[in-house]
Amino acid sequence: MSTDRLAEVRRRHAVAEAGGGEERTQRQHKEGKLSARERIDLLLDESSFEEMDKLVRHRCTDFGMEQQKAAVQSGYWPLFRFNPVLAREGKNPLHIDSRAPSLPLEKYVYNETRYTMLVKSRPEVASQALKLAEEDVKARWELYEKLAASPTAEVPKEVKK
User: What is the gyration radius of the CA atoms in the chain, in angstroms?
Assistant: First the structure.
């Protein structure tokens, strides 16, 4: 291996070991957190863990974010927060973070292999399932909107403790 290539491998190894850099590690420490490498060192014996592919550059950069965005926009996966502390204060604990569904559910589900396989194998069942799913998305969204708009929401007794 040439000196230049060896130097590059060592540089990349150091970058990987830094896990985002000293600034990021310090920020995690300020928040009372350990880095991933520090957690691994605490949990495992030195010889019981071998890291593979440390120097591999992964080609995936979006991690399916467009499909996840479609799930949210279709209403299949609404984003919301529930804070039981607000319920104890007599306030509404539910806050919807996503907008009302704006993408037809079909645009989301037919990008998922599990649904396209059903369309290919049993189109009549797939059509019925899509119709039921669309009704469910609509009903759930209406329920979430109603709950989020009320001054307070009913909170299960075990949450009120």
Answer: 24
Cα separation, 55 vs 9, in Å, equals 8
Q: What is the pLDDT of residue 39?
A: 86
Threshold 0.70, pTM exceeds: no
- Residue in 87, 67, 85, 88 with CA at minimum distance from that of residue 77: 67
Q: b/e per residue, 124-142, with b = 16+ CB within 10 A?
A: eebeeebeebbeebeeebe
Per DSSP, the three-state class of 87 is helix
**What percent of the chain has a predicted confidence (pLDDT) above 70?**
89
CA angle, 105 then 109 then 114, to 5° = 155
Top-confidence residue, 58 or 134: 134
Name residues whose C-beta falls within 8 Å of residue 24's C-beta, 6 or more positions apart in sequence. Answer: 35
What pLDDT digit, counting tens, does each position of 32-68 carry? 988 888 888 888 887 777 776 777 766 666 678 899 9
Structure tokens at 59: 């080609």
What span, in angstroms and rounded, lies between the C-alpha atoms of 121 and 130? 15
d(CA 132, CA 124): 13
In degrees, rounded to 5, the angle at the alpha carbon of residue 138 between the alpha carbons of residues 64 and 115 is: 45
